Amino acid sequence: MKLLTTILIILLSITTILAEEIKIAEFDARDIDRTTSEFNYNPQLGRAWVETTIYDNGHYEDSVNFGRTYKILVTGLSFDTVSNQIIYTDQNNVVTVCSKLIKKNKRSKKYVLKETHQCSFVTRSSTRTIDDGFYIQNQEILELYLNYVSQ
Known about the structure:
Blueprint: H1 2-18, E1 19-28, E2 32-42, E3 47-56, E4 68-72, E5 77-80, E6 85-89, E7 95-103, E8 111-115, E9 119-131, E10 136-149
Antiparallel strand pairs: 1-10, 2-3, 3-4, 5-6, 6-7, 7-8, 9-10
Protein backbone atom coordinates (compact mmCIF):
# COMPACT_ATOMS: atom_id res chain seq x y z
CA MET A 1 0.00 0.00 0.00
CA LYS A 2 2.84 2.35 0.84
CA LEU A 3 4.48 1.57 -2.50
CA LEU A 4 1.27 2.41 -4.36
CA THR A 5 0.93 5.70 -2.48
CA THR A 6 4.56 6.59 -3.24
CA ILE A 7 4.12 5.84 -6.93
CA LEU A 8 0.95 7.94 -7.03
CA ILE A 9 2.72 10.90 -5.41
CA ILE A 10 5.59 10.63 -7.88
CA LEU A 11 3.22 10.50 -10.85
CA LEU A 12 1.27 13.51 -9.59
CA SER A 13 4.44 15.52 -9.07
CA ILE A 14 5.66 14.67 -12.58
CA THR A 15 2.33 15.79 -14.04
CA THR A 16 2.54 19.01 -12.07
CA ILE A 17 6.06 19.65 -13.32
CA LEU A 18 5.03 19.10 -16.94
CA ALA A 19 2.01 21.41 -16.74
CA GLU A 20 2.71 24.74 -18.40
CA GLU A 21 0.74 27.85 -19.24
CA ILE A 22 0.79 30.74 -21.66
CA LYS A 23 -1.00 34.05 -21.41
CA ILE A 24 -3.31 34.39 -24.41
CA ALA A 25 -5.31 37.56 -23.66
CA GLU A 26 -6.07 40.28 -21.16
CA PHE A 27 -9.17 42.39 -20.69
CA ASP A 28 -10.21 45.45 -18.72
CA ALA A 29 -11.79 43.85 -15.67
CA ARG A 30 -14.21 46.64 -14.79
CA ASP A 31 -17.75 45.30 -14.47
CA ILE A 32 -16.88 41.76 -15.59
CA ASP A 33 -19.21 39.27 -13.98
CA ARG A 34 -17.89 36.03 -15.50
CA THR A 35 -16.17 34.58 -18.55
CA THR A 36 -16.44 31.41 -20.59
CA SER A 37 -13.80 30.09 -22.99
CA GLU A 38 -13.84 27.28 -25.54
CA PHE A 39 -11.98 26.08 -28.60
CA ASN A 40 -13.32 26.56 -32.11
CA TYR A 41 -11.92 25.61 -35.51
CA ASN A 42 -12.10 25.85 -39.29
CA PRO A 43 -11.44 22.40 -40.82
CA GLN A 44 -11.00 23.73 -44.36
CA LEU A 45 -8.11 25.99 -43.31
CA GLY A 46 -6.70 23.80 -40.51
CA ARG A 47 -7.01 26.65 -38.05
CA ALA A 48 -8.13 26.77 -34.44
CA TRP A 49 -8.69 29.58 -31.98
CA VAL A 50 -10.14 30.34 -28.57
CA GLU A 51 -13.53 32.02 -28.21
CA THR A 52 -14.00 33.87 -24.94
CA THR A 53 -17.30 35.40 -23.93
CA ILE A 54 -17.28 38.10 -21.27
CA TYR A 55 -20.45 38.79 -19.34
CA ASP A 56 -20.70 42.13 -17.56
CA ASN A 57 -22.58 43.08 -14.42
CA GLY A 58 -25.36 44.68 -16.45
CA HIS A 59 -24.65 48.25 -15.32
CA TYR A 60 -24.92 49.64 -18.82
CA GLU A 61 -28.20 50.72 -20.42
CA ASP A 62 -27.61 48.78 -23.63
CA SER A 63 -26.44 45.67 -21.80
CA VAL A 64 -28.77 42.71 -22.12
CA ASN A 65 -25.96 40.53 -20.74
CA PHE A 66 -25.66 38.23 -23.73
CA GLY A 67 -21.96 38.84 -23.38
CA ARG A 68 -19.28 40.00 -25.77
CA THR A 69 -17.45 37.23 -27.63
CA TYR A 70 -13.83 37.58 -28.67
CA LYS A 71 -11.94 35.32 -31.06
CA ILE A 72 -8.37 34.91 -29.84
CA LEU A 73 -5.67 33.63 -32.17
CA VAL A 74 -3.15 31.60 -30.19
CA THR A 75 0.26 31.01 -31.76
CA GLY A 76 0.80 27.25 -32.00
CA LEU A 77 -2.90 26.32 -31.86
CA SER A 78 -4.17 24.54 -34.99
CA PHE A 79 -6.67 21.99 -36.28
CA ASP A 80 -5.15 18.74 -37.55
CA THR A 81 -7.38 17.69 -40.47
CA VAL A 82 -5.98 14.14 -40.55
CA SER A 83 -6.70 13.24 -36.92
CA ASN A 84 -9.58 15.76 -36.44
CA GLN A 85 -7.95 17.23 -33.34
CA ILE A 86 -7.19 20.70 -32.05
CA ILE A 87 -3.54 20.65 -31.08
CA TYR A 88 -1.20 23.09 -29.38
CA THR A 89 2.48 23.03 -30.35
CA ASP A 90 4.75 24.91 -27.96
CA GLN A 91 8.10 26.58 -28.71
CA ASN A 92 9.90 23.24 -28.16
CA ASN A 93 7.67 21.51 -30.76
CA VAL A 94 5.92 19.48 -28.06
CA VAL A 95 2.38 18.70 -29.20
CA THR A 96 -0.58 18.65 -26.82
CA VAL A 97 -4.04 17.49 -27.95
CA CYS A 98 -6.63 19.96 -26.61
CA SER A 99 -9.83 18.69 -28.24
CA LYS A 100 -10.98 15.86 -30.47
CA LEU A 101 -13.75 15.88 -33.02
CA ILE A 102 -16.06 12.93 -32.34
CA LYS A 103 -19.43 11.82 -33.69
CA LYS A 104 -22.37 13.11 -31.68
CA ASN A 105 -23.90 9.62 -31.61
CA LYS A 106 -23.54 6.42 -33.63
CA ARG A 107 -26.21 7.23 -36.23
CA SER A 108 -25.55 10.94 -36.54
CA LYS A 109 -23.29 12.54 -39.14
CA LYS A 110 -22.76 15.54 -36.86
CA TYR A 111 -19.55 15.96 -34.94
CA VAL A 112 -18.83 17.75 -31.67
CA LEU A 113 -15.62 18.87 -29.99
CA LYS A 114 -14.69 16.91 -26.89
CA GLU A 115 -11.98 18.37 -24.67
CA THR A 116 -9.16 16.04 -23.65
CA HIS A 117 -8.42 17.66 -20.27
CA GLN A 118 -4.83 18.21 -21.37
CA CYS A 119 -5.66 21.88 -21.96
CA SER A 120 -7.69 24.20 -19.76
CA PHE A 121 -8.39 27.89 -19.34
CA VAL A 122 -7.53 29.87 -16.22
CA THR A 123 -8.38 33.50 -15.47
CA ARG A 124 -6.51 35.69 -13.02
CA SER A 125 -7.15 39.24 -12.01
CA SER A 126 -4.45 41.74 -11.23
CA THR A 127 -4.06 45.45 -10.70
CA ARG A 128 -1.84 47.49 -12.98
CA THR A 129 -0.63 51.00 -12.16
CA ILE A 130 -0.87 53.37 -15.13
CA ASP A 131 1.01 56.67 -15.12
CA ASP A 132 0.01 58.84 -18.10
CA GLY A 133 2.20 61.75 -17.05
CA PHE A 134 -0.68 63.62 -15.44
CA TYR A 135 -2.40 61.09 -13.20
CA ILE A 136 -1.60 57.74 -11.64
CA GLN A 137 -4.45 55.24 -11.81
CA ASN A 138 -4.91 51.64 -10.83
CA GLN A 139 -6.58 49.49 -13.45
CA GLU A 140 -8.04 46.02 -12.84
CA ILE A 141 -6.96 43.53 -15.51
CA LEU A 142 -8.38 40.07 -16.21
CA GLU A 143 -5.75 37.76 -17.71
CA LEU A 144 -6.65 34.61 -19.64
CA TYR A 145 -4.18 31.71 -19.67
CA LEU A 146 -4.08 28.44 -21.59
CA ASN A 147 -2.79 25.66 -19.35
CA TYR A 148 -1.48 22.57 -21.12
CA VAL A 149 0.22 19.35 -20.15
CA SER A 150 3.42 18.62 -22.10
CA GLN A 151 3.71 15.06 -23.30
